[in-house]
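Work Package 4 report. The design task specified in the project plan requires that, given a folded chain encoded as structure tokens, an amino acid be chosen for each position. We show below one input record used in the internal validation round.
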């Protein structure tokens, strides 16, 4: 059993590949945040203001349902939370995940994927969803980060707050 959980939401597979690499680096358990209603390509069309992802983004109260049960968070001291950046924010299902669990006393490190969007205030916007957690420095990775980049971030988050 690992004391680290890598939890991630991936719409296109990019974040999933990164999550798998990170989990392998630290021998972490892996948990995929899966929407109860899968996103179709039309749902993900960010150029269409009527697409599902656009509508969820525009609704601060949107909390898409997750499929399956939450992992047993009591087993973990650290949660590495990954997702793509959508409109300079986390997809709303990430808020669903944070609101569904008890992250009290957990260390949360955010890793995001994006080809162009900066990390900006992505993490800052999520922190109220798990206020009793210790939030570590987050990072935005390019679609295919080097092994050295992954190792450097993992080293930095593993040293924070200890």
């Amino acid at each position: 059993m690992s004391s680290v959980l890598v939890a991630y939401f991936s719409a296109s597979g990019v974040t999933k590949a990164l999550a798998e690499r990170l989990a392998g680096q630290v021998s972490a358990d892996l948990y995929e945040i899966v929407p109860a209603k899968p996103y179709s390509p039309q749902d993900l069309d960010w150029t269409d203001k009527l697409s599902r992802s656009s509508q969820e983004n525009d609704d601060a109260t949107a909390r898409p349902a997750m499929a399956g049960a939450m992992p047993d968070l009591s087993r973990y001291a650290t949660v590495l939370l990954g997702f793509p950046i959508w409109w300079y924010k986390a997809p709303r299902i990430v808020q669903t995940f944070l609101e569904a669990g008890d992250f009290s006393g957990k260390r949360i490190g955010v890793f995001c994927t994006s080809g162009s969007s900066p990390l900006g205030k992505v993490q800052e916007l999520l922190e109220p969803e798990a206020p009793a957690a210790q939030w570590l420095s987050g990072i935005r990775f390019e679609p295919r980060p080097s092994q050295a980049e992954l190792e450097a971030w993992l080293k930095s988050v593993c040293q924070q707050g200890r």
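The chain has a mean pLDDT of 91. Validation will be extended to a larger panel in the next phase.
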